[in-house]
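Sample log: MADS-box domain-containing protein.
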Amino acid sequence: MGRGRVQLRQIENKIRRQVTFSKRRTGLVKKAQEISVLCDADVALIVFSPKGKLFEYSAGSSMERILDRYERCSYAGQDIPTPSLDSQGECSTECSKLLRMIDVMQRSLRHLKGEEVDSLSIRELHALEMQLDTSLKRTRSRKNQLMVESIAQLQKKIDQREDSEPQNLSQGLASLAIPPCEPPHPLPRPTSPPPPLSLGGTSHRNEVGDLDAGTLIRPTNTTLPHWMPRLTGE
């Protein structure tokens, strides 16, 4: 039974796709080399990977020579107007002028970087110094301007914060204020103690001093409360 025709389609798996690309690219280069050797043909191969990496191969001649040959063959059948000698001379003069300007600008840039200054004369070095000094002054002026603007912005923020702090402080104190307490009620003043009583011949000691042992306190006619029993001395 014959083998069916395989339908070509893009490999969805990225890893398998990369492996297949490497294998097929190697095989393609090998085939190009074979046809160049076997048939004495100029072969140029240009391949870009899916990630944009360039792979090229040329057999028999350089890549530039093969591409130049390809361009000549491509435009051979087209009617290309032949430029006149005057236009060719103007283009050549313009190109030479542009090339000289590019060379002068590149040399000046190298001098500004401090390169290739050994061949300069005193006048050229002085002119270069003046140019660098002017550039340095402009750079410092711009830097100082940016610093002043930055300081002004910071000062403005500080002033705004200082203006808002007293208001926030007063609001915080108002929220933390304690209501005034009522004054405490005065305590009742203690009354004077009742006079000491003495029964019989018992001696009495007061705060002033000791009484004589034989001194007796005579009973008084003080009326006692109704709940205290009456005591009479013998």
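Observation: The first strand starts at residue 43 and ends at 48.
Observation: Residues 18 and 50 are 8 Å apart (CA to CA).
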